[in-house]
Amino acid sequence: MTSPTIPGGASGDAASLATLEALAAWLAAAFESGDTAVLVEALAVAARAEGTTHLAAAAGLPQAALRAAFASGELSLDATLAIMKVIDLHLPGEAH
Description:
Distance between the termini: 31 Å
Radius of gyration: 12 Å
Strand content: under 5%
Number of helices: 5
Mean pLDDT: 82
Number of strands: 0
Largest sheet: none
Structural class: mainly alpha
Shape: globular
Order of helices and strands: HHHHH
């Protein structure tokens, strides 16, 4: 399984994802990979990352619920869309 590539060379371990920007780049790369296994692994790492605190606040989601969803790899559609808005990820074919 290949981990997503992080702009700026961040390693993708939970310790390197302490900011909203780092976590957003990590998750965007995972979503854009189109690989379910990569996304599930990225979410598992995100569950332990400090940046998840900032992402939860920016997305208007309870932090504990977001961490649990990341850990299980099962996000609701509402949570997924809220995260996509924060990380500025667009659906294919959607106008930017």
